[in-house]
Amino acid sequence: MQTIQIKDKLFNQYITEAQIQTRIQEIVSELSEKYKDKNPVFVVVLRGAFMFASDILKKFNYPCEIEFVKLSSYTGMQSTGKINMLLPLKEEIVKNRDVIIIEDIVDSGLTMDFFVSYVKGLEPKSVSLISFLYKPENLQKDVKIDIVGFTIPDLFVVGYGLDFDGEGRNLSAVYQLAV
Ligand code: IMP
Predict the structure, then answer these.
(1) Mutate to test the pocket of ligand 1, among 75, 104, 148, 177 (most ligand atoms within 8 A of CB)
(2) What parts of the chain have a pLDDT lower than 50?
(3) Residue 107 annotated among the catalytic residues of the structure
(4) What is the DSSP string of 7-73?
(5) What is the CA(62)–ligand 1 centre distance, in A?
(6) pTM check: above 0.85
(7) List of domains in the chain
(8) What is the pLDDT of residues 70-88, one digit of tens each?
(9) Residues enclosing ligand 1, CB less than 6 A?
């Protein structure tokens, strides 16, 4: 088992790069079938989803647009459930379009519960949500995820876009906190 250290914590490899890339191919096949004639708008949620989105979008060989949003961080929202958009969505791009939100992880679900409702309010033709990871044990809101990369137990994970205290986003595999 491959173990890495980030700051003072040890992490064990949990999902390999090969497993991720195999899953990416399956996701792209599903998206291609569904959206090849639709010119969808992919909305990438920064920062965590950048690597997942990049791998998907490089292989999605059909017309599409790509937008980015940045939502306020996890720690700041835990008490209130209120989420701020630090980089807002260009609202005019979404109206009457097929929108695909790309997120890194759905944990409590508070972030995506807010954001999916917000996008729906902008009158898109359709909205779907893709999340690289999903931790169902922590879910507090009934968030519908159309495509999940991997369902995982309630573990802190890092890599492939996800960070621990600002580091680890550049890792090409996923690592879990060693307990
Ligand atoms: P939610 O609103 O609780 O679903 O939180 C989602 C956000 O929390 C994600 O976009 C991540 O930024 C962060 N997050 C949740 N779990 C983890 C984890 O295991 N590692 C790194 N970030 C996480």
Answers:
(1) 104
(2) 76-79
(3) yes
(4) TTEEEEEEE-HHHHHHHHHHHHHHHHHHHTTT--EEEEEETTTHHHHHHHHHH--S--EEEEEEE--
(5) 30
(6) yes
(7) 3-177 (3.40.50.2020)
(8) 998 655 334 456 788 999 9
(9) 48, 74, 104-111, 156-158, 162
